Amino acid sequence: MPRFESDSDARRLGEALAALRQEAGLSQAAAGERVGMTSQGWGLYESGKRPGLFRPDVQRRLTTALGASPEALALKLGAPAPPPPEPAASGVENRGRAFAGPSAATRRLQLSNDDLAPWAASGVVLEYEPGRWPRRGQGCVIEMADGELRVRLYEHADAEALTVRGLRGGEERIERSATRQVSAVTARLDV
């Protein structure tokens, strides 16, 4: 198999992964634990010493552990996301190890205040997927019954309410009856 990526490419991709991890507020150990590896294993990806980071399936696995996507990794790197795979000639679709880009349902919202600093500041554009439920500590966009959109960090939910963080780290309880939809933030884009 020809090696098409250089050591500097591997290092740059590893640095982009490290930036995503730091934005998520995770240590190498915590990030590695989410995918079943040690902090040393995660560190090898970030230092560019583990070439598997060029594989789309590995990118999906590692970025998902950070609450991000391979597209967010590509944006951190400053390169366009890879094109989708071509359909197999046999008429059967073979997606191989490639990943699909953002879904058509992905929406964007630009923050106009610093209520969620340092997680996200004014001017940051958030991509979110309606219908995708957030994980603990992940950003979420809450569409209220009156049409207002609230951006918070998801903590947990029960049958009656959502518990979120926001407004300078304070905890907030939002009654489910006051919400229309909760959507996971899938990427933060600095403008």
TrEMBL record:
Domain HTH cro/C1-type intervals: 17-73
Which InterPro entries does this UniProt record tie to the protein?
A: Cro/C1-type_HTH, Lambda_DNA-bd_dom_sf
Gene Ontology terms, MF aspect: DNA binding
List the PROSITE patterns: HTH_CROC1 (PS50943)
| Span list, region Disordered | 77-96
Q: Which CDD domains does the protein's record reference?
A: HTH_XRE
UniProt xrefs under SUPFAM superfamilies: lambda repressor-like DNA-binding domains (SSF47413)
Name assigned to this protein = Transcriptional regulator with XRE-family HTH domain
Supply the source organism for this entry: Brevundimonas basaltis
